[in-house]
Write a structure and sequence with these properties.
alpha/beta; Rossmann fold; 2 domains; 13 strands; binds adenosine-5'-diphosphate; binds magnesium ion; nucleotide-binding; ATP-binding cassette domain-containing protein; ABC_transporter-like_CS; ABC_osmolyte_uptake_ATP-bind; ATP binding
Length: 270
């Protein structure tokens, strides 16, 4: 379990990024932190692996203050996936995944074997192993990022808008893949996004943030959709709802329902 206990972060005096944020994240669940840009999502995520230290308050993992842990060891024990992938450009795909394992003390051969297994697990063909990151599509790069984060078999996976830079259809594939992986692996996932659809699709629970990491509402997607806590939440989820609303187009004399991304979702009955 991850617990935020009244954490506040002031990067500079008088400029509060996160104010008195408290949240318990149960193990083996996916919690989506949903908020617009600047609401403090990245700050919160990075406090879990000590890339950001709180100004006050504590973050606990299984009851232990993360400050009691060695920062490097802590960071290595937690998977972290970034929007840009954060891959090493001068290393091949397989080495990008294997490097994490080598750092953890594994020798070259078993590290490569495990890296190949991880590539397979996230849906990457083995023929891509020798390529460099720049020779992959955005979606493939994000899969490598996920494989790398999973390499040390962490209990916790932090994901910071990991699918934000890919087009909507690839994004949907990556979300499906994550749902499938999570059903198999049961990690504790903290997933940060500003995309309402994505949060509702992936989160067992969603935490809607207003500015400064203030929780506007927390609940299952169904709970939040059924009863937004206030106008802020209603507006926030409603604004994006218009985008994903269905419309119809006529193709070959048939009326086809399409979603907000123009993807066909069904044929209308006449
Ligand atoms: P989000 O990820 O939701 O976009 P961030 O956590 O990145 O939000 O940022 C929250 C606030 O903290 C913003 O106002 C941002 O400008 C500020 N901030 C983030 N990182 C730093 C930093 N390293 N130094 C100073 N201010 C920062
Ligand atoms: Mg951010």
């Amino acid at each position: 379990m991850i617990e935020f206990d009244e954490v506040t972060k002031e990067y500079r005096r008088g400029s509060v990024a996160v104010e008195a944020f408290s949240l318990e994240i149960p193990s083996h669940r996916t919690v989506a932190l949903l908020g617009s840009s600047g609401s403090g999502k990245t700050t919160l995520l990075r406090m879990v692996n000590r890339m950001v230290e709180p100004t006050s308050g504590r973050v606990l993992i299984d009851g232990e203050d993360v400050r009691a842990r060695d920062a490097v060891e802590l960071r290595r024990s937690i998977g972290y996936v970034l929007q840009a992938g954060g891959l090493l450009p001068h290393r091949t795909v397989i080495d990008n995944v294997a490097t994490v394992l080598r750092l953890g003390g594994m020798t070259r051969k078993p590290a490569r074997l495990r890296a190949a297994e991880l590539m397979d697990r996230v849906g990457l063909e083995s023929s891509l192993a020798r390529r460099y990151p720049a020779e992959l599509s955005g979606g493939q790069q994000q899969r490598v990022g996920v494989a790398r984060a999973l390499a040390p078999d962490p209990n916790i996976l932090l994901m910071d808008e990991p699918f934000g830079a890919v087009d909507p259809i690839v994004r949907r594939d990556l979300q499906d893949e994550l749902l499938r992986l999570q059903a198999e692996l049961g990690k504790t996932i903290v997933f940060v996004t500003h995309d309402v659809d994505e949060a509702f699709r992936l989160g067992d629970e969603v935490v809607v943030l207003r500015g400064h990491g203030v929780v506007a509402q927390r609940g299952t997607p169904a709970e939040i959709l059924a009863a937004p806590a206030d106008d802020f939440v209603a507006d926030f989820i409603g604004a994006n709802r218009a985008e994903r609303s269905l419309s119809t187009v006529d193709i070959g004399g048939r009326s086809i329902a399409v979603d907000g991304n123009g993807r066909p979702v069904g044929v209308m009955q006449k």
